[in-house]
Design goal:
Order of helices and strands: HEE
Radius of gyration: 13 Å
Oligomer: single chain
Number of strands: 2
Strand order of the largest sheet: 1-2
Distance between the termini: 16 Å
Shape: globular
């Protein structure tokens, strides 16, 4: 059974991660494959309806990825 890992890097307090840094971090946490999406100021991570990052700078979020599980 596989594990799905989501990561959102908040770059407001620094420079964020480069593609290489993100790949290295995903390898450290055990990812076998990964995809890096846009990491701009509109990045947000929401879990169970609660926003757990504060990187959204007020811009509209035009693209979303959603994962829904059935319990």
């Amino acid at each position: 059974r596989g594990v799905l890992i989501f990561a959102a890097v908040d770059g407001k307090k620094g420079t964020g991660y480069s593609a290489l840094q993100m790949a290295q971090m995903m390898q450290r946490v055990g990812a076998h494959e990964s995809v890096m999406l846009d990491g701009s100021g509109s990045t947000s991570l929401v879990i169970n309806g609660k926003e757990v990052t504060s990187s959204n700078d007020g811009r509209l979020v035009l693209a979303n990825i959603g994962i829904r599980t059935s319990n």
